[in-house]
Amino acid sequence: MKPFIVFFLTLLVALMLEALPFPEGFVWYRPEWALLVILYWVIALPFRVGVGAAWFLGLMVDLLQGGIIGQHSLTYVIIAYVCSVFYKRLRMYHTWQQAVFICLLVSINQLLDFWIDHYLGHADPTLMIFMPAVITGLLWPWSFIVLRSVRRIYAIR
User: Would you give the DSSP letter of residue 46?
Assistant: First the structure.
């Protein structure tokens, strides 16, 4: 399989996971699957995957969730840029240390999303906006192992 197809399939799986319905009481516990996958690829292949892929994936998430076009694109681009700046350091950290950094990046993403929603009158202030960041950070080690094994099986470099 060509590397681009495998990369595209991982993004497609992330979008399908984003589309999964959650019960009303657990909506704050939904992980940021698409951001998790794009952050992995930015860390693993920083010269092939970057801000452009993050923008495209953010646009797909906007279309999928029916929100404002460009909201997730903007936040994903900012987070992917920050991650691409620090990718050398991130590669040296242990997986649990990377998870803390991923949690911080997703927290920034959640805060930016909240600011946009609050400005438009769609969101009320609550600390629960950071719960997806915690859940995503907890899922990082397992998703890192799965995506790294996919990358190694298909020899994506």
Answer: T
